[in-house]
Amino acid sequence: MKTNLPLDADRLWTDVMALADITDPAKPYTRRSFTALFLEGRAWLAQRFAEAGLATRLDAAGNLIGRIEGNDPALGVIAIGSHSDTVPSGGRFDGIAGVATGLEIVRALRDSGTRLDHTIEIVDFLAEEPSEYGLSCVGSRGMTGSLDETMLALTEPSGETLRDALRRVGGDPDRLDRARRDDIRAFLELHIEQGIVLESRFLDVGVVTSIVGIRRLEIVFQGEADHAGTTPMNLRHDALVAAADTVIAVRRLAEQLAAEGPDYFVATVGILAVDPSASNIVPGRCRLVIDARTTNPALTARFVDAIDRDSAAHAAAARVARASFKTLSDGPPVACDPKLREALQQGARDLGLGQMDLPSGAGHDAAFMSRICPSAMVFVPCLKGKSHAPEEWADRDAIAAGAAVIYQAVKELDRSLPRSR
Ligand SMILES: [Zn+2]
Known about the structure:
By secondary structure, the protein is an alpha/beta fold. The chain contains 12 helices and 15 strands. Strands 1, 2, 3, 4, 5, 6, 13, 14 and 15 form a 9-stranded mixed β-sheet that branches. The chain has a 4-stranded antiparallel β-sheet with strand order 9-11-7-12, covered by helices on one side. Strands 8-10 form a two-stranded antiparallel ribbon. About 50% of the residues are buried. Bound molecules: zinc ion. Zinc ion binds near residues 94, 95, 128 and 191.
């Protein structure tokens, strides 16, 4: 890896580590959105933004934004960002590395005496991780006009609504229109890969091609709960037997679709609820939830058709009813912008870094941002692909390399983005 990067790797690393220190000491690394610790982290970030010469504000959707005006304010904004909240007992890099990257890019531009034509904004999106209110990507939904009244009415376990929580952290749920943007010309996000592809290929950066769409399917098999000792095998209506066949079918079909290539496809049965779930009772009811992710919705359509057919057959074979087969949620895949991807690829080439294109199997703020502006992402390798865990780790130089790719791309896009106003 080339070491003379156009930014200060140590300064970037120091920020990531300093923010990591703002954690629930009993559960490192925890900085849940809407909590006092989260606000403490943000106060620290706002301070760092100000020290870097950024004008800092909170928008109506609760996003922390640092801004440095360009030579020509009419050209609009190049935004860089990610999120500073974590899952419970999460890591030090997921989200944080992307926010710190934006900050370091602004400082590096300043140090080199460069003032861009475009205005630059660094965004710490509110609550990217699933929040206590049952919603993720709250801030990026708000910035893109995708945060609606139903979502604001969601409550956390003690009863506070998301609307009240948003107000509590400095947002303005009654004026979300003010958070909605039409002046952003490009959005770039650095994130740890959360997978093992880059690490296993010894590559420095991944340029994300698209962010998967996620379909969640619920299937309920309804049989009869009977005595496990007195009910002969040929008289049973065992709901779990049907569910088990379906779990295997999901696995086989997903393997087959993934192997077809070039599109990404994965599917998981992550919830299997057996009722009554007792050792001496034949399972009477079984609910499973399938999470299917792809870059190509046509594959999901084939998958859903096949699982529909198969699960009906599994129910019949087990002599149970398929009481429900329904889609719980369906988010489309999002392609990253080709022009931005090219700028990132060129940046990596200029820096002599090893790179590849790859899809993102996880959701990100960039997926929402793509609704209002060209968006793209850079992945950096993380140790053994682990994330959402305290062991989550990315090397200092790996983060710096990814940040440098975005730095190069920002400078290139400042020159090459369309200048129509
Ligand atoms: Zn993240």
